[in-house]
Specification:
It is built from two helices and four strands. By secondary structure, the protein is α+β, with helices and mostly antiparallel strands. It has a four-stranded antiparallel sheet, covered by helices on one side. The longest helix has 20 residues. It is globular. It comes from Actinacidiphila epipremni.
């Protein structure tokens, strides 16, 4: 997921066979965002903090695009991502950047 300014907000944690499956999974993530678990944790691969969002099956669905130096900054980014997902889930349709 990228912001309007091109900055990467989040990365998908799964792979899909094609773009249609990916879009379907993302739309499901948006509509079910209020019931998903997740949070901030220390990054094993670096000296920072990352957030992860888990689906109903407990599998990681989305992760922070980068590690954050401070726990509080990562927590704030995680909370903004959750709000963004909830907004997309409440919208009529996900506004795909490629106009499809």
């Amino acid at each position: 997921m990228t912001a309007n300014n091109g900055r990467v907000i989040a990365l998908g944690a799964r792979t899909y066979q094609d773009e249609a499956q990916c879009k379907t999974a993302f739309e499901a993530l948006c509509t079910g965002a209020d019931g998903l678990a997740g949070g901030v944790q220390h990054a094993a691969e670096s000296n920072g903090w990352v957030w992860r969002l888990r689906g109903p099956d407990g599998q990681v669905q989305a992760v922070s695009a980068r590690a954050y130096e401070r726990h509080s900054t990562c927590q704030a980014a995680y909370e903004r991502f959750r709000v963004l997902l909830l907004g997309l889930g409440a919208a009529e349709a996900v506004p795909w950047g490629d106009s499809s």
